[in-house]
Amino acid sequence: MTRLKEVRKPLSAILLLSLSFLHAEGPRPTLPPDQRTNGKHTLTAVEKLKPLTIACSARIESLLGRAICAATIVGEDGYVLIKASEVPDLGKVHIKFGDGRITDLREVHRETRLDLVLAQAVGATGLRAVSFGAARSLTMGQWLCSVAETGKEPRIGTVSARIRRIPGTGAALGIRMAEKSAVGDKGVRIIGIASESPAEAAGLQENDVLLSIASETVGQFRQVHDIVNKRQPGDVIEVRYLRKDKEETCRVRLASRTKVLQNWEGEDFANGGISLRTDNFPEVLQHDIPLLPTDMGGPVATLEGKVVGINIARVDRVTTFALPVEAFWTEAQQWIQADRHPPKAVLAQ
Amino acid sequence: MLSLCISLPRRAATILVVLKIIAASALAASGSDKSAAPKTDIASLLQVQSDVQKLLPQVRLALVAIQTGGGTASGVIISPDGLLLTAAHVPGGPGKDMRIILEDGSMTTAKSLGLDKTTDAALAQLKKRDKPWPFVNLSREVIKAQPGEWCFALGHPGGFDKSRGPVLRVGKIVKQTANSLHTDCVLMGGDSGGPLFNFQGEVIGIHSQIWENRDQNVHVSMAPFLRSWEAMQKSQVIKTWGIGAGGYLGVATRMSDDAELEVADVIDGSPAQKAGIHAGDVIVGLNGSAMTDQPQFTATVRARAAGDTILLKLRSSGKERIVSVKLAQKPQEEGQ
Q1: Cβ proximity of A140 and A158 under 8 Å
Q2: What is the radius of gyration, based on Cα positions, of chain A?
Q3: How confident is the model at residue A191, as a pLDDT?
Q4: Helix B10-36 and helix A11-25: axis angle, to 10°?
Q5: Cys-Cys link to A276, which of A182, A189, A255, B89 (CB 3.0-4.6 A)?
Q6: Distance from C-alpha of A13 to C-alpha of A9, rounded to nearest angstrom
Q7: Do A2 and B70 touch (CB under 8 A)?
Q8: What is each CA distance from A193 to A179, A203, B225, in whole angstroms?
Q9: How wide is the angle at C-alpha A221 spanned by C-alphas A218 and A224, nearest 5°?
Q10: Least reliable range by pLDDT among A255-264, A325-334, B127-136
Q11: Which domain holds residue B112?
Q12: If we measure between CA atoms, which residue out of A168, A108, A165 comes closest to residue A324?
């Protein structure tokens, strides 16, 4: 669209051009990286907030130790909140705390509407829980501090737009399909795959013929739409398909439709990745802290150290959404209470 | 140490590259000196926050979203009669009709005037003139902006979104060149043409390009806007900017034994020679600012355009004098 959006392909050209200009321009004073907005020098300002932010977060890892996302500690006895669509199965991940302790997670309550899951780190005690402040009163330009680099380092940024609701656009695979059935009245041929999409990640290719999705046989592209539309970003579906006359299956994790459509050709090259689910939130606080999708689930705090939200989606190069505390904390406290004090068993009548 | 504050034919340019490394290491050293200075604290960040929040309610009214056939972008109103600044790649040519969405979501129209395709600067005019438009001032002193100064960007990344409104980014100036400012205010598609502000609430840059890193965001500075103003108001298109990336003086400098900035050589036929500058003159100041080292002098000269007049304070044989020099177009390399 604008040059900023077109910048992907001619990138190397622009870069080279600019380097050759450097010869002509001579030395220009350049701000060293450590003095930039998120450089070491500037970040010393928020060093003393570490016990209120970094110490109250943890890292969710795959069983092999790969970073998946962050978690916010909300109870000294091991309760944590995590971005739900990043962890469909808590049995396949563990939690690692700042002091190096690693434990399993027990799912307590999953709230798809908020994209949050409340879990308890099994056997963990004496943790430091966040202290929540208020988010709805914050205005644009207010500094915020968050946790990055798999929970080790702080990053700063400001509230960058209005608090608002983000409507949902449904889930998508990231494929274009042929209008006619592939084999008689059976199968739907894939005629295009979006860059970095769920379909691409699962290994689907152009010319593969979809036979069934989530155990439902498909013969028309509309059926595929209907099945995918019923689901949420982050959901995993099984796809059975035909490649070179051989039947195969794969599992695909769906992403937000907006994410897939906006990034069809990989326009998001200059961002560092986006979250699978980027929309359908009742309320978000938007900020410009430079974070990665693996930083989602961590706390976001004011410079007074009050946590005002939980990072919930990395959306594009300039946008991160956080769920403001008012959107989840009253409910989450009830989930914790109910879990700590389960109703006594009642004798069957 | 010999350094040339101009671009020279190839043989000399090679020397410049070697010297650049020395200059860069000198810069890096001065950078680490600065980090020994008091570190940023929460109070200074809160001051930045309060400054931005004070300016925001008034400057955001001058931000507009621009819709052209090719996509969506941003712009900023800089006069009560509705003159708009944007990036040249937004209209693409003069006399183009553009749909404008104001900050509150109301719609109006504008026509593009002239543009400078070499620097990505463009002017446009809002068509309605029945009442004064909300506007912001532009900075006429942009060359004074220093790396490390705080600034903030506004725009409509991804296009106009009524429920979201304009998007703010607060950051620092990373570098200034003759025509551009580089900042760590992160930009993306749709921001093109939007304003970069200093803490006086003046426009210092117009969003233009990004590179892959989040710290690589390029804005057209006000310098080419001011330079090409008359041509752009007449709806002219500047395609090749004959005067290159900055003004040409034509002296080589070195640091003397007394650590003063000294003219080492004067190029034949250069503006410096015509103005009577000689090898051995000590360069004391430029337009009233003290000159102390080569990188500073080079950057100061090159931040000005060909045609600009500078006042150099020089000293020779114990006597100070002020020389007025009109910077020229840099000599073209033969065969190019």
Answers
A1: yes
A2: 23
A3: 93
A4: 90
A5: A255
A6: 8
A7: yes
A8: 15, 10, 43
A9: 55
A10: A255-264
A11: 40-241
A12: A165
Half-sphere exposure of A148 (CA within 13 A, CB side): 17
**Tens digit of each residue's pLDDT (9 = 90 or more) over A185-197:** 788 999 999 888 8
Number of structural domains found in chain A: 2
Mean pLDDT on A222-243? 91
Residue of B42, B49, B158 lying closest to A142 (CB–CB):
B49
Q: Which residue of A has its CA nearest to B92?
A: A2
For residues B170 and B153, what is the distance between their CA atoms, to the nearest angstrom?
6
The DSSP bridge pattern shows strands A255-256 and A171-172 to be: antiparallel
Q: Is the confidence at residue A160, as pLDDT, over 50?
A: yes
Quick one: A101 and A204 in the same domain? no
Residue A254 CA to residue A211 CA, distance in Å, equals 18
**B97 with B236, same domain?**
yes
Q: Looking at the complex, does the CB of residue B176 fall below 8 Å from at least one CB of chain A?
A: yes
DSSP-assigned beta bridge partners for residue A209: A189, A242
Distance CA B256, CA B291 (A): 13
pLDDT at A98 over 80: yes
Q: Inform me whether the C-beta atom of residue A284 falls under 8 Å from chain B C-beta atoms.
A: no
The answer to whether the beta carbons of residues B181 and B219 sit under 8 Å apart is yes
Tokens matching residue A180? 């006619």
* Token duo for residue A58: 């943890």
Please tell me the distance from the alpha carbon of residue A213 to that of residue A227, in angstroms, as a whole number.
7
Tally of residues, chain B: 336
Please give the Cα distance from B1 to B174 (Å, whole number): 26
Is the Cβ pair B172, A31 closer than 8 Å? yes
Determine the Cα–Cα distance for residues A39 and A30; give it in Å rounded to an integer: 14
Chain segment B163-187, per-residue pLDDT in tens: 999 999 999 999 999 899 999 999 9
Of A245, A165, A252, whose CA–CA distance to A200 is shortest?
Answer: A252
What token pair was written down for B211? 């590179």
DSSP notation for B247-272: -B--EEEEE-TTS-EEEEEE-TTSHH
Do residues B253 and B263 lie in contact, with contact meaning Cβ atoms separated by under 8 Å?
yes
Q: Which positions of chain B have pLDDT values less than 70?
A: 1-38, 239-246, 330-336
Question: How confident is the model over A102-106, as a mean pLDDT?
Answer: 97
Cα–Cα distance, B74 to B87 (Å, whole number): 9
Shared-domain flag, residues B207 and B297: no
- Domain span at A77: 48-166+282-340
Helices (H) and strands (E) in chain A, counts: 7, 22
Tokens of B153: 């960007």
- Tell me, yes or no, whether A244 and A180 share the same domain: yes
Of all helices (H) and strands (E), which one includes residue B76? strand B71-77
Number of H helices, E strands in chain B: 6, 20
∠ CA B108-B111-B115, nearest 5°, is 135
Which of B226, B241, B256 delimits the end of a domain? B241
Contact at 8 Å (CB) between A292 and A273?
yes
Please, what is the angle between helix B10-36 and helix B294-302, to 10°?
110
Please give the model's pTM, rounded to 2 decimal places. 0.76
Residue A126 structure tokens: 């004496």
pLDDT at A272: 64
CATH code for the domain of A198: 2.30.42.10
A165 shares contact with chain B (CB less than 8 Å):
yes
Query: A92 and A232, same structural domain?
Result: no
| Residue A85, amino acid | S
Task: Return the number of CB contacts < 8 Å for A and B.
Answer: 217
Q: Measure the CA–CA gap between B16 and B302, rounded to whole angstroms.
A: 14
Q: Which of B49, B175, B193 has its CB closest to that of A141? A: B49
Whether residue A255 sits in one domain with residue A175: yes
